[in-house]
Amino acid sequence: MTDDHSVDDRVPPRNGLDLSRRDTLKGGAVVAAAALTGAAPGPAAAATDVAPLPSAPRHGLRLQTTVNGTAVSVDIDTRTSLLDLLRERLALTGAKKGCDHGQCGACTVHVDGRRVASCLTLAAKLEGREVLTIEGLSEPGTLHPMQQAFIDHDALQCGYCTPGQIMAAVACVAEGNATSPERIREYMSGNICRCGAYVGIVAAIEDAAATMGRG
Amino acid sequence: MIPASFPDRARIDARDKVLGVARFSADVPVTGVLYAMMVPARIAKGTLTGLDTAAALRVPGVVRVLTEADFPAPPPVIENGPPPPPPTLEREIAYRGQPVALVVAETLEAAIEGAAAVVCTYAAAPFAALIDSEGGVREMGEEIVFGDAEATLASAAVVVEGEFLSPTQHHNPIELLATTAVWEAGRLTLHEATQGAGGTRGMTARALGIDPGVVDVKSPYVGGGFGQKGGLGQRQTALIAHASMLLGRPVKLVTPRGQIFHLATYRPLSRHRIRLGATAEGRMVAMQYDAEQEQSRHGIFPSAEYHETTSRMYGIANYLGTSADVRIDRQPPGWMRAPHPQASGFAMESMVDELAYRLGQDPVALRLANTGDVDFRTGQPFSSNHLNACLEEGARRFGWSSRTAEPGSMTADDGSLVGWGVACGSYPSMMVPAVATLRIGADGSTRYAASGHEMGQGIRTAIASVLLESLEIDPERLEILIGDTTAAPQHITAGSWGSAGAVPVAMRAAARMREAVAELLDGREIAGNLHRRLATVRRPFLEIEVSEVGPGQGQDVLQALQYGAPAVAGPAYPTFTTMSYIAHFVEVRVEPTTRRVRVPRVVSIVDCGRVISPRTAESQVRGGVVWAIGAALREATEVDPRYGGYLNNDLADYVVAVNADIGAIDVGFIDQPDPLANSAGLKGLGEVAMVGASPAIANAIFHATGRRLHELPIRIEHLL
């Protein structure tokens, strides 16, 4: 297997988070992942490791982007989806893979404030943009009003689609699409909840929209 | 010490779930993990004659391609023993999509590219893909017979009859099948989304010929199960475990949904012919019911269970039930939410509705006059049956009394046809053995370990509800370990027995703990919670272990539990039969020109005995109704008769209910404890929630349009 570090070596470390292959191999990514998730480095964070790219992909690319307010610089395979970058490289496993086809919404995150299916978004398109995931939605130790409303209305069961539902719901309110139950249902229909928590999801969004001052 | 009713309590794991920190199996961080991807067979039946891995191995990052030659021979079949584990890799192809190779690579992208680069050649054989395909083999199941149905039908004043069809459907939990295997220091740890961690351990060990004692399975959160992640075990588990052991590194597989359609179990297509006889007054007296289903060549999903609920619901004294498998070349079908009663209930409750119209009776009144206290199938009494209370409360909440019976007689202001329909459901209430340990620490911690799997139904919340109601402990530091073979023996969680397997044993544990504390304090009065009291008497912790078995079960079932084998009691217990019941009331609106069907409101009233966790129970019922709406109006898997396999194998083409499909769902509980079923007085809930709601929709469509549809799903083209 080849192990070409030349790309890493030419790019000087920046002030933000630098996730070169060499650094991840040194274990730097452990700290990086902790920073992204907002968790203090500790036993749980130490157990988290970002899979380094083991060999230079044939079509490799250095990506510089921002995730949850933290600058990220990472070597990627150009085929990598944003979802796989988040989950497999950055240890941000809140966004879920449910279909990998943009059909279920479990992978919903925000890019520059808009909701996107991260499984259908090539990571390479994130150059210079800002990604927000469920891990960055609220300050550590607190809940976003939408998260609290999901708890209050039991707007979840298994919890697998929930991070995507909440990211979509926050966007739904911000877009001005949370003005009636009918409109919420329509604009939340890209996020499937197979457990069938839809009644609670609509109630939670109506509730949070009032708190958030939109809708 | 059962409280009169349990208080409303938030889902105990909701906070972790809304923060996105609840760890599902594919979320578990593992250092140095390799990624796997399976190569599916492109023929429906035949033999793999060649497998060229050269191109795959040239893909940068691909580490290894595993083939049939890398796996041990299947274990010998044990006569009358447990079903064999799923096969590993084989050259004989039994169904399209069967894995023929496993590519393992340093990155997910390389694994995907590598899997696509494997070149297979096959010798294809003729195959049967559909229930009516040439080559299907019909096999009769157990007959369910009591009384004299033929003679009674011959003399019955009224007989209604019809044939009904329920389609192939796939579970489609949003969580994909996922396995991460870590082979380290002589132990194999499997992080897998499973409803049966104990069974997964046993099956994987048997498939690979290793000691189950060195295998640990962890499944603390399941991203939706619905039966897909239990029962027969997953074919991928042993593949990933073996790859990890061969390569000495952790291996992870998240199976693409398109492959899951071809690998996982599914609800088989089934056909139902019913003749239902009644007196002129409307007493149902006899039923003849022939059920048949599609089945794989060696599948074990039992056909006779279509009679499980239909033979018991309305006190019919004369019953003749037959069932048949039609064995064809597909992967094995299995248990999908409300497995048999979803289909049999559609057939029967449609017939009951037709009977009401034939007799000129109200469909609610007809049902009220036919429920009973005796299980004619066994001659035993039901331990409880509050179906009439469900019907009465549902009718009241729904406003049923203002319904006009004539089909097409009710319209909305916008011109839509309005249909109001009712149907009932029931489901066996079963019970399984359990072992639990409870440890309370002077440091403020509480650790409870038991059998059970949290897949959204709220089992962890129900356990917490019991412990927090009966013990003065710190709720913030209550740890509930379930779905983990290293914490407690794990029975499969399915068949609506989750609560019966988890709650009575938790109550027993709490009671035993209170005794242990009393013994320890020996009459001393110490203020504060249990942690404080332990600290005061300088006792670091107290730990107790208890077990629980179902009515009529001996202690030997605890042995089966240790091995991960199913040990299910009921619904026919030694002296009584226990069923859960539900009544669904549905309004449909049918748009007059497009015939688009909407379901703006549903009222569902449930008799599931004592309700332990009201909030999660309500959600579970809503979920069952959502499933029934999907099943009635949307979901069918399309089998490709030309090549085998499934045509609509993704969530764009296999259409499940989305938010815009769902209106108001009002849920109520009778909340009367069952006096005999178990010490908690609870009955099963997860399946019965769905049973009957699809036929209630079909009956409402009949009321709106005058069209009695005999096939699900009911789509616009059936109403034009």
Layout of helices and strands, plus pairs?
The complex is a heterodimer of chains A (215) and B (720).
Chain A: H1 6-10, E1 17-19, H2 21-26, H3 28-37, H4 43-47, E2 60-67, E3 70-77, H5 82-89, E4 108-111, E5 114-117, E6 130-132, H6 145-152, H7 162-174, H8 181-187, H9 198-212
Parallel strand pairs in A: 1-3, 2-6
Antiparallel strand pairs in A: 2-3, 4-5, 4-6
Helix pairs in contact in A: 6-9, 7-9
Chain B: H1 14-19, E1 34-40, E2 46-52, H2 54-58, E3 62-66, E4 92-93, E5 99-105, H3 108-117, E6 119-124, E7 137-140, E8 144-146, H4 149-155, E9 158-166, E10 178-184, E11 187-192, H5 197-208, E12 215-218, H6 235-247, E13 251-254, H7 257-263, E14 270-278, E15 284-296, H8 307-310, E16 318-328, H9 341-359, H10 363-368, E17 374-375, E18 380-381, H11 387-398, E19 417-428, E20 434-441, E21 446-449, H12 459-470, E22 478-481, H13 498-521, H14 530-536, E23 541-548, H15 557-563, E24 579-590, E25 597-607, H16 614-633, E26 664-669, H17 693-705, H18 716-719
Parallel strand pairs in B: 1-13, 11-12, 15-16, 21-22, 25-26
Antiparallel strand pairs in B: 1-5, 2-4, 2-6, 3-5, 7-16, 8-16, 9-14, 10-11, 10-13, 14-15, 17-18, 19-24, 20-21, 20-23, 24-25
Helix pairs in contact in B: 5-6, 9-17, 12-13, 16-17
Word description of this protein:
The complex is a heterodimer of chains A (215) and B (720). With 215 residues, chain A is α/β, with parallel strands linked by helices. Chain A has two domains: 6-93 and 122-131, no CATH class; 145-212, [2Fe-2S]-binding domain (DNA polymerase, domain 1). In chain A, 36% of the residues lie in helices and 14% in strands. Chain A has helices spanning 6-10, 21-26, 28-37, 43-47, 82-89, 145-152, 162-174, 181-187, 198-212; strands spanning 17-19, 60-67, 70-77, 108-111, 114-117, 130-132. A six-stranded mixed sheet of chain A has the order 1-3-2-6-4-5, with helices on both faces. In chain A, helix 6 runs antiparallel to helix 9 (198-212) and helix 7 (162-174) packs across helix 9 (198-212). The longest helix of chain A has 15 residues, at 198-212. Chain A is elongated, with a radius of gyration of 18 Å. The termini of chain A are far apart. With 720 residues, chain B is α+β, with helices and mostly antiparallel strands. Chain B has three domains: 25-127 and 171-263, Aldehyde Oxidoreductase, domain 3 (Alpha-Beta Complex), CATH 3.90.1170; 270-429 and 574-719, Aldehyde Oxidoreductase, domain 4; 431-563, Aldehyde oxidase/xanthine dehydrogenase, molybdopterin binding domain (Aldehyde Oxidoreductase, domain 4, 2-Layer Sandwich). Chain B has 18 helices and 26 strands. Chain B starts with 13 loop residues before the first helix and ends with a helix. Chain B is 26% helix and 24% strand. In chain B, the strands form six sheets. A seven-stranded mixed sheet of chain B has the order 3-5-1-13-10-11-12, sandwiched between helices. In chain B, strands 7, 8, 9, 14, 15 and 16 form a six-stranded mixed sheet that branches. A four-stranded mixed sheet of chain B has the order 19-24-25-26, with helices on both faces.
